[in-house]
Every structure is written in structure tokens, then in C-alpha cells.
Specification:
Distance between the termini: 75 Å
Strand content: under 5%
Shape: elongated
Radius of gyration: 30 Å
Helix content: over 70%
Length: 228
């Protein structure tokens, strides 16, 4: 949540200050009355930034602005790193539980099942497929908590800056979401096929390594017959 906060306020909070600093907005000397309206918030921010420029001068105020930008981005990246570090044990624990349940399921299967199933395919299920679960579902769960906060905060800032442009962006996002959803359904089918082919590949490699002596013997016999 802290990473989301610093991501949202990193640049928009400095826009009024930069406008005053570079004479895009007149300096406000009279203290306005605070209100929760858009105009009231803008007037109060402009007054506060104007006081900084008047007290320290433009050059010193620009240095302070640069320091604030560096600090905000540093805190955003720091909290992003801490969020990943906090989630790492959880992600590893979930993957561990899934693999343990898969292993216990394999141990409880009848012997007849293993006479037909490929060992390499089973190994692919417990390694590659579980890795896909970690990369897909767990990332989705993380984004399901983080991204709504990011979107909500971004929409609030966008509406504050330009309501008409916000409506245009929301319509564009809706159109993009429909297109990406269609592409995602196609990729889902291809991803399932890719995982199946990966299991077949691992199975064939495992069979080749297990029967390496027989394969080498047949191969040498074939070379000898060809030479004769």
C-alpha cells in the first residue's frame, strides 16, 4: 500500500510546485480558506508552494524539488522491494504445499497407473506446471490486491487534473481490455498445449536416459551393420 501511495503521488504532487517555479502559475501571497473542493485544494497547494519559492528563492526551491523527487522515488522502490521480500516466503510456502500434495497423490496412486503413465510427464507436472501456478495465479492474487488501489488512486488524480481526459482514457482502457481478453483466451489454449508438449519432452528425455545402455547398444550395432 505504501508503494502504491508513493507511486501515485510521485509526480502529480510536484506539478503545481513546478508550475509556480517556472512562472506557469502566479505566486499566491494571500492565504486561502481551506475547503475539500478541487479549487480549494489547488489554492491551498499553490499558496504553500508559493511560500517556499518566496522564502528560499527559485534556485534553492528547485534544489528542494529535486531532493523531494529523489526521496519519493527511493521510497517507492524501497517499499516495492519490501513487498516482494514479504511475499517471497508466502509464495515459496504455497508452492511447497502444492508439490507436497502432488507427491502424496502420486504415492497413493495404484501401481497400474504408473505402468501406463510416463514418468517424465509426472515429473513435468510436479516441476514445470507448479512453476506456472506460481508465476500465474500467485501474481494474479498479488495484483488483485495492489492494482485496484493503484487504479483507484490514479483515477482520483486524473479526475482532479482533467475530468474530460479521464473519461477518454477510461473508454480507451475498456476497448483495450476487450482486445486483450480475446488475445488471452487464445494464448490460454496455446499455453495448455505448450505445457502438454513440455511434459512429453521431459518424458522422452527421461526414457532415453533410463534406457541409455540399450540405445547405445542398438546405435553401435546399427553403425557396425552400416560399415559392413
Amino acid at each position: 500500500m505504501l508503494m502504491v501511495v508513493f507511486s501515485i503521488v510521485s509526480i502529480p504532487a510536484l506539478i503545481p510546485f513546478l508550475n509556480i517555479l517556472f512562472d506557469q502559475q502566479p505566486i499566491v501571497t494571500a492565504k486561502p480558506i481551506w475547503s475539500w473542493s478541487k479549487e480549494g485544494i489547488e489554492d491551498f497547494m499553490n499558496y504553500g508552494f508559493s511560500q517556499v519559492v518566496l522564502r528560499y528563492g527559485k534556485e534553492q526551491a528547485l534544489i528542494y524539488a529535486c531532493i523531494v523527487i529523489v526521496v519519493v522515488f527511493f521510497l517507492k522502490n524501497l517499499f516495492q522491494y519490501l513487498s516482494l521480500a514479504f511475499m517471497a516466503p508466502l509464495r515459496n510456502g504455497i508452492v511447497y504445499d502444492i508439490r507436497q500434495q502432488l507427491f502424496e497423490k502420486m504415492m497413493n496412486l495404484p501401481i497400474a497407473y504408473f505402468s501406463e503413465a510416463r514418468k517424465g510427464d509426472l515429473m513435468s507436472r510436479i516441476t514445470a506446471d507448479v512453476q506456472e501456478v506460481e508465476a500465474g495465479i500467485l501474481n494474479m492474487l498479488t495484483n488483485a490486491i495492489r492494482e485496484p488501489l493503484m487504479i483507484l488512486g490514479a483515477i482520483v488524480v486524473m479526475v482532479f487534473i482533467s475530468p474530460s481526459l479521464t473519461i477518454f482514457v477510461l473508454v480507451l482502457i475498456l476497448f483495450t481490455g476487450i482486445v486483450i481478453g480475446g488475445i488471452g483466451r487464445v494464448l490460454k489454449k496455446k499455453s495448455s498445449l505448450a505445457q502438454s508438449q513440455l511434459g512429453l519432452l521431459v518424458a522422452r528425455v527421461e526414457e532415453a536416459i533410463s534406457g541409455l545402455r540399450i540405445i547405445k547398444g542398438v546405435w553401435r550395432t546399427t553403425l557396425s551393420d552400416s560399415a559392413i
